[in-house]
Design brief:
With 289 residues, the chain is of the alpha/beta class. The protein is built from nine helices and 14 strands. The longest helix is centred in the middle third of the chain and has 15 residues. Bound molecules: S-adenosyl-L-homocysteine (SAH).
Length: 289
């Protein structure tokens, strides 16, 4: 983009029927990993709003959504930059996860409204993981609960597979654990490193690298976190299950509730017992701890 266009921002609004909810949110998880707003409508159905600087990206996303959910209504429009900044800042509100964490955008770093909570500062950028997506919030709440229960604690090791913005690893490192974050997307790796610095987490407490579970081969961790999606979670089950230290905890997220049985079965085939499930909306996390 050049010149004046650089200042432009675009908004895609989708109104979807109840039965298309899973399809639309699944596609948004892939095509709008930077986040979106969701509002249940009184007469049923949901309004999804996605802001993005690339009109082309939103146009492609709209076309994909309308192919998957032809009954949906879509509106694509330009937003004034000033409105956008306000909307952006309004959207990235603090997110409380479990008893321990609060996820904040950097412009709220100075807020002391959350005494006793560990702040996780995340610059809302292209990498997934601002805390506004249910799967991220689920993982952080589970980490918080495991810390509360003394099931995991300072000095232990973690693996954050599919680190995205680095949000989960930062939460673990700020809780005294030490570990490794991996992502196959180089932009996510850069973003995770930026967020690590923003949070004052030393690289030695939270190592971040490009790649998948193979990069962690031969190592095992007291806590293994993977908020990816059902299919890749199933594909890497042998390696991921092996990354868990004996007696360690494993948390899998990014799974639609309708997919949870299939994912759990693949991990049980690796010798794991039945998982505990935590549900949030249509999303489900599988927990072995
Ligand atoms: N952990 C963050 C981000 C989750 S989004 C959070 O909880 O919010 C999922 C991330 O996993 C994306 O950044 C994607 O690039 C990455 N990813 C997908 N498949 C992967 C794989 N097989 N190995 C490592 N990273 C993967």
């Amino acid at each position: 983009m050049a010149g004046a266009e650089q200042a432009a921002l675009f908004r895609l609004e989708i109104i979807a029927e109840e039965e298309d909810f899973d399809r639309v949110s699944g596609l948004l998880a892939l095509g709008a990993p930077f986040g979106w707003e969701e509002e249940s409508l009184e007469g049923g159905g949901t309004r999804f709003v996605i802001h993005c600087e690339s009109e082309d990206h939103l146009r492609r996303l709209r076309d994909e959504l309308l192919t998957a959910a032809p009954q949906a209504e879509a509106t694509l429009e330009t937003v004034e930059r000033q409105d956008w900044l306000a909307a952006w800042r309004q959207f990235f509100t603090p997110v409380l996860c479990g008893s321990r964490f609060v996820v904040l955008p950097p412009w709220l770093a100075g807020e002391d409204r959350f005494p006793g909570r560990i702040p996780i500062l995340i610059e809302p950028k292209s990498a997934f993981g601002t805390g506004h997506h249910a799967t991220t919030a689920l993982c952080l709440s589970i980490v918080s609960d495991l810390l509360d229960a003394g099931r995991i604690g300072a000095g232990q090791s973690f693996l954050d597979l599919g680190t995205g913005s680095g949000i989960l690893g930062i939460g673990c490192a700020k809780s005294g654990l030490m570990g490794l974050g991996l992502d196959i997307d180089p932009l996510a790796v850069d973003n995770a490193r930026e967020n690590r610095a923003l949070n004052g987490v030393p690289a030695a407490s939270f190592e971040i690298g490009e790649g998948s579970v193979a990069e962690a081969a031969g190592r095992s961790f007291d806590l293994v976190l993977a908020n990816i999606l059902a299919r890749p979670l199933m594909e890497i089950a042998p390696e991921l299950a092996a990354a868990r230290a004996a007696g360690g905890a494993l948390v899998l997220s990014g799974i639609l509730e309708s997919q949870a049985d299939a994912v759990e079965a693949v991990y049980r085939a690796q010798g794991l017992p039945a998982a505990r499930r935590t549900i949030e909306g249509e999303w489900c996390a599988l927990v072995w701890a």
